[in-house]
Design a protein that fits this description.
Elements: H1 2-18, H2 21-58, H3 61-64, E1 69-70, E2 78-79, H4 82-113, H5 116-127, H6 134-152, H7 162-171, H8 173-185, H9 189-197, H10 202-213, H11 215-230, H12 234-239, H13 257-265, H14 274-303
Antiparallel strand pairs: 1-2
Helix pairs in contact: 2-14, 4-7, 4-8, 4-11, 6-7, 8-11, 9-10, 11-14, 13-14
Length: 308
Amino acid sequence: MGTQTNVRKMIHDNIVSNKNWFDKMVPKILFLAALVSVITTLGIVATLIFDTVKFFQMVSFSEVFSTELAPLRAQNPTFGILPLINGTVFSSLIAMAVAGPVGLTAAIYLSQFASERVRNFLKPIMEILAGIPTIVYGFFAYSFVTPLLMKVIPGLGAKNVLSPGLVMGVMIIPIVASLSEDAMNSVPKTISEAALGLGSTRFEVAIKVVLPAAISGIMASFVLGISRAIGETMIVTIASGSSKAFTFDITQSMQTMTSYIVEFTSGDAGTGTAGYYSLYAVGLILLLFTLVMNLIAQYISHRFREEY
């Protein structure tokens, strides 16, 4: 009994003696490291809100939510943001019209039909698309895709929203395909095996069993893909041009919110002017766009999640 007490006392003394200043500081250091992202986010949001308020003190709401955008005009510049929202929405929808079907089809094949050897070969190659710099995609859209489309579509402008939209779709295929494949692979094999045992074909199992069971992850991948398209900068800056006209013609040039920021910051906008503060207003709206998309993705993921 005395030996057990002595051993217990030795262990306790050893633990107490090892709790030096470094052991006490480690949790605080880790907490500060975790706090960096929170502080950075709050700083970005505060900066955008603070300077956006200054912008709206100079420009009325009715002018901001109009279709006339001419921020660099010498006399009476206008800051209607609707053309930028229009260009951003159109380019993102075109991108998802490509990435959605192609990415989902690729995910179905990789998760349900491809052998392990084929999957290990194809998936890394597909994910290389995500590692290509976006400026390379931009030049590809402008110098290859646009001339190719001009031979097929009469009246297609040298700068248009169709070409960068298609190339953005190719760029975000890995996002949709990878996340959708992960969602389908999370469906228990026993469910698909039971469907096969009842006489279903592999295609029927994939479409009628696995796809509905993984719908929450698939929809979340679509929404995240749209968020990625909304925030894209270089592709639309190079291939879509800087036309500020409010139009629904995808064969013509449109300007997105990100390309507006690039154009204006590379110009001669003076600090403290309405044009300068318009950058923060556009940035805040862009942040709200992506925030809403991410919240929708989280809602869909939790609302339609299937737990097995």
